Amino acid sequence: MHTHTLFLSKHPFVSCFSDTIPVGLKSCALLEVVDFSRNNFSGELPMDVFLNLSSLKTLNLGINNFVGELPDSLSEMMNLETFDMSSNRISGRIPVVRRVFVFKLHW
């Protein structure tokens, strides 16, 4: 079995286009691992981009500049096991995510 991975940590290609997650990611339903850490993304977390990724097990968005609350839609990600939002400016309550084994908010 193959793991479908998108590893773009600290990647100059990503940060030269925008300061947020590319919306084209929505069409990559087979991804299991997404790492967009260290890209200086900013603003609120665009969870709608990730909701179509039904196979997603690991989501690393650490060391960016996301702000605000984690959206309730995070709880809809049924296969998510690892979620890293460390070193961002997240505030407010944390939605219930049933399968997550590793959940990082602070470094």
Polypeptide structure, described:
The protein is mostly beta strands. It has one domain (5-104): Ribonuclease Inhibitor (Leucine-rich repeat, LRR (right-handed beta-alpha superhelix)), CATH 3.80.10.10. The protein contains one helix and eight strands, in the order βαβββββββ. The chain has a five-stranded parallel β-sheet with strand order 1-2-4-6-8, with no helix packed on it. A three-stranded parallel β-sheet has the order 3-5-7, with no helix packed on it. Helix 1 links the parallel strand 1 and strand 2. The longest helix is centred in the N-terminal third of the chain and has 4 residues, at 12-15. The chain is globular.
Top keywords for this entry?
107 residues; mainly beta; Leucine-rich repeat, LRR (right-handed beta-alpha superhelix); 22% strand; 1 helix
Number of helices: 1
Number of domains: 1
The CATH topology comes to Leucine-rich repeat, LRR (right-handed beta-alpha superhelix)
Proportion of residues in β-strands: 15-25%
- Which strands sit side by side, in order, in the main sheet? 1-2-4-6-8
Unreliable parts: none
Order of helices and strands: EHEEEEEEE
Oligomer designation: single chain
Number of strands: 8
In the CATH scheme, the class would be Alpha Beta
Query: Which structural class is indicated by helix and strand composition?
Result: mainly beta
CATH architecture descriptor text = Alpha-Beta Horseshoe
- Major sheet characteristics: 5 strands, parallel
The geometry reads as: globular
Tell me the span between the first and last alpha carbons. 33 Å
Helix content: under 10%
CATH superfamily: Ribonuclease Inhibitor
Protein name: Putative leucine-rich repeat domain, L domain-like protein
Pfam families: LRR_8 (PF13855)
InterPro entries: Leu-rich_rpt (IPR001611), LRR_dom_sf (IPR032675), RLP_Defense (IPR053038)
